[in-house]
Every structure is written in structure tokens, then in C-alpha cells.
Amino acid sequence: MINGIMRIGIYGGTFAPPHRGHVKAAEEFFRQMELDLLYIIPTAVPPHKQIDASDDPRHRLAMCELAFGKMPRVIVSDMEIARGGKSYTVDTLRTLAGEDRRLFLLMGTDMMLTLDRWREPEEIFRLCYPVYMRRESDPIIEGQIVAKNKEYLEKYGKIVRRVPMDFVDISSTAVRERVRDGKAIADVVPDAVAAYIEEKGLYV
């Protein structure tokens, strides 16, 4: 806490399932942004992507609790699942905003490049400091990021800052494919998450 202002991180997503890359991203986000508290918030219905028709957000919430719940000063929140419907970031920011709080919103490169197409982007930039991490190594995207940040600065008076992190080549899609193919996943998801997926028969 600096000058009585609490630094709060927000890391949302489908987390279907949460994997070791998510955990590493949360740790680096917390450390580099010098957060006092980090919210992990699985979405109810993501507005930007399709999810499997059989998806049960309660399973994703339970797996997030297993993956992140023991990390100090981390809260796994069901606020978007409890709210129901499409999970719009601006609504979550309004819920968590306060005069004694500074909010930091973590996203991936694809989300960073389309942030101006989210619901109420002006309000998102007003309520938080957005930051992004790169999972890909494509140099062409670097120019797109620079151009987009110039646009954001002109439109909203802020840029999306980068949290540097070593490239982690894991995706939830690949984890689900491994499960469907009968392959082991213990190397890519936390042990407790792997056990939960097997116990509940998920993604088969």
C-alpha cells in the first residue's frame, strides 16, 4: 500500500482449465505491479469467445480455487459467475473500484489489441491501469502493439503497459485436447487441478 492507496490486480478469464502458465502469469503480475491484493475472477459467459456447450462455470471456479487459492493475498472470486450472463469487464471494475484503490487489469496480447472494442472502453481506461503479457513470440505483433498504444493514448490518455514474462507455451485448449486424447497433463496444470479433472471426468 502506497500513501493509503491499495494496489489491486484483476486477472479474469475462462480458465478452462487453469494451467501452469496462468499461475506463472499471476505470480509475475503480482510481483511486477507490486500488488497488495490479486483477484482471480473466472467468467460466467465470456463475451469475446465461444465456450463448450457443456461448460459448467462451477467446475472452473473450483479449479481456480485449487490452482490459485493457496497463493498469499489472492482472492478467487465468483462475482462474475454469481452475476450471470455475459461477463463484461467494465461491470467488474465498477464493483471493485474505490477512492482508496488503484486497479490493475491483466490481459493477453489479443485482448490488448482489441480493448477499444470492449463494452465502454473509455470507462475501462478511467477505472483501471490495463497491463498485458505476451504469450506469443511473433515480432510482427510488436508493431501492432506500438500503433495500438499510440491510439489508446490519444483516445483515452493511457497506454496498456507490458508485464514482461518468459514465454510459456501452454493453452487451455491444448490441455483439453490432451485430456480427450488420453494424454497426461500433470506437467501443464497444477497437480490438484489434474486430479480434479480426472475425478470429475472433465473434457473427455
Which structural class fits the helix and strand makeup?
alpha/beta
Count of distinct structural domains: 1
Helical content stands at: 40-55%
CATH architectural designation? 3-Layer(aba) Sandwich
CATH superfamily: HUPs
Rg, Å, rounded: 17 Å
What's the count of strands?
Answer: 6
Shape: globular
CATH topology: Rossmann fold
Query: How much beta, percentage-wise?
Result: 15-25%
pLDDT < 50 stretches: none
- H/E series: EHEHEHHEHHEHEHH
- The CA-CA distance between the termini, in Å, is 45 Å
Mean of the pLDDT scores?
Answer: 93
Main sheet: strand order: 3-2-1-4-5-6
CATH class: Alpha Beta
Helical segment tally?
A: 9
Q: What characterizes the major β-sheet? A: 6 strands, parallel
